[in-house]
Amino acid sequence: MLRSVLRLFLLVLLALPAPLRAQPPAPLTPAQYQQDFDFFWTTVHDNYCYFDKKQTDWARVRTVYGAQLPGVTSRSQFVRLLENALAELYDNHAGLSTNLPDSRRLLPSGTDAWARFEQGKAVIVAVRAGFGAERVGLRPGMELVAVNGVPIEQALRPLLGRTLKTIDAAAREVALNQALAGTHDQARQLTVRAGGKKRMLYPDQPTAQLENIRYPALLESRQIGTVGYIRIHNSLGNNALVAAFDSALTRLGSTTGLVLDLRETPGGGNTVVARALMGRLLTQEQPYQRHEQPAEEREFGVRRSWLELVAPRPQPYTRPVVVLVGPWTSSMGEGITVGLESMRRATIIGTEMARLNGSIESYRLPNSRFGFNIPTERLYRVDGLPRENFVPAIRPDDTIPGDAGLARALQLLQTAKP
Predict the structure, then answer these.
(1) How far is it, in rounded angstroms, from Cα 178 to Cα 162?
(2) Is residue 172 one of the residues assigned to a domain?
């Protein structure tokens, strides 16, 4: 009986006029691609707030990539064109809301190691705990010689912008880490040098862990001696974290100090969650960061800036707090860190954070319908220090085996006055 019903349904469907059947989206016309590109270019031109830090010639971006539009006949080709155009900003806080199978992984959320040029060599400076790079033995201090058999300097060339007035150190570092992160569809082979010997490491085997990141919960919490510990699992954009954090902090309410671990928050988050978390650590309302919107000043000649406040929430935790940070503390994680430090509510231990620029705003292309994000507001510590320039005053001792940051935090809290 069921088979007969299904057969009848299919016959009726086939008998319907073509316009009534489900149809794939019609391909865009050249004029629609042009309209989307113009919208993209103008939006970035008018609203991106860090051009003064860049060597990007944005007017030339319009010329170089606009000239490629006549050859664009598919969505994937257009995505790649916009990816390349946006990469001219070499800004890890700017990106598209879509990608292709062979797109570069996002920084820092899509990488498990960080490198920097030191005395002309590409040196690993941080490795993400619990991921493939650490599992296969990549360690800070190793020299990165090649990626997938391509020497580093050669691997960088296609990742450096075509419109840069000069290739500065910041552009080279972004390109270096894009090469290190790799693409979504290709397993990486990293050639490193350590102790004078070369080694081949395969961080994406047997599985590309970065493509399927799963966390057991929004956070992890436990008591270590008399000290409470809460580690956020990249969930600062999930409003459910507020209840989970409240519950964990209530259970740890009798501890003599708290470690708030933000070292695995590369995906950023939202200010509702951030203010909720900080609010449980305060007893009075305080400003935690300064905003500035340059677009308004460019258009009207009137500077606009303001302080954002955090209000205390019920059952405040009043004991000493240490925040742990690192290269995978990004965006909203950086905001919480700088905010708690500004309000003198926490001691910060760690290395440089992700140093993402400002606060992003999302836009949607009128025809292609996918979005893109760019920083439109500059963010500062309350005293005026740009958020991306903040560096913790206390750095963990890397010679200590195990989790040096946590060890230093526990040592500090165990000697702190209540």
Answers:
(1) 16
(2) yes
